[in-house]
């Protein structure tokens, strides 16, 4: 809803096809590629006529832009997968690199640090766009943590298969967050925020987690 508010504030029309489902990353990561293709084919059909597809998750964005091409390599529907990948953008990437917008008119008083989700950073190479947007938010102090690029330990099925390793990784991340003295930790991937928030709550910390869009929607 915050993404819709931001785009409408900028004068754009947003459509949300209710037939859309998961992007197919869970079965893809688990090695069930036939099942992943079935899900992806549904998504390709749902968004076939869309002008542009904007995704608010670096993880899902990487699945569509990067891993669909791998999933459908030498497949009869490869061209369709490439067409969807070409018009799909992660939220911050679309604002900064496609629309040329860095200031969305947001005001959000507080001290925040930013977490780089692995897929957004390593698969989509999106280090600068979310920070450029946050730097133009009035009243917001952006403080970099030392472990900004360190994985939070979620990794989808990884957290389920290796819970002790996942928790240890989250502890490193959360310690780095606390060290900044930030009131908020912001990211453009909700799955990472779920992992970080879970451990912060368990530790009794008061730091809040927010998606990038939640910050940018405030005026």
- Radius of gyration over C-alpha positions, nearest whole angstrom: 18 Å
What structural class is derived from the secondary structure elements?
Answer: alpha/beta
| Strand segment count | 6
Largest sheet, spatial ordering of strands: 4-3-5-6
Q: Beta fraction of the residues?
A: 5-15%
Name of the CATH architecture of the largest domain:
3-Layer(aba) Sandwich
Order of helices and strands: HHHEHHEHEHHEHHEHEH
CATH class of the largest domain: Alpha Beta
- State the helical fraction: 40-55%
For the sheet with most strands, the description reads: 4 strands, parallel
Q: Total domains, how many?
A: 2
What would the average pLDDT be, to the nearest integer?
96
Distance between the terminal alpha carbons, to the nearest Å? 15 Å
Shape: globular
Low-confidence stretches: none
CATH topology of the largest domain: Rossmann fold
DSSP summary: helix tally: 12
